[in-house]
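Side project, low priority. Logging it here so it doesn't get lost.
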Amino acid sequence: MEMVCITGGIGSGKSVVSRVLRLKGYEVYDCDSRAKELMDASEALKCELEKRAGVTLRSADGCIDRRRMAEVLFGDDSFRRFANGMIHSMVRDDIRGRLGESESGILFVETAIPVTSGLDRMADGIWLVDAPEDVRIDRVMRRNGVTAQSVAGRIRTQRGEFDSLPAARTSVIRNYGSHSLLLQIDRYLESVLHRSCSGKA
């Protein structure tokens, strides 16, 4: 089973790449949305997080109160490291469970934090979606109605996630200007399919 991480900073277009792959019939595991589902489904995790935080983190329906969780996370570095460690471990285990289930023999995994989550070490290949900073800022401003300064701040905090990606396993998708996104996806997809078939031979 081939696992490929799709990653990139805010405004790069990694979600667009994921949508194209889904339209082509491939499974794309969305780490962000799946992590929320796993957190809400795990009573043990919720109890452990509340025990560590010392406060209730659930809303009336029993699910994690995202706003309250964010307040505690950003106010306590120790709790943030503890919570992220538990959540990332749960996501990695969930992905391992998905490997081998896909009919295509390939599982694409979309994540904004490949290094922090440890998924860069699990992946057979990494697709890094990239665009110039000014292009990314403009995209996010139009999409989210936020200021250029706030987007630039997010970009700065994310840089460390991509600087240390393994060059030998990382392919860059240039999502800007005259670069054809579809042609790049098809070219890298052909390479992934070749590796997958070679592994089965």
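Brief comment: The longest strand covers residues 2-7.
Revisit when time allows.
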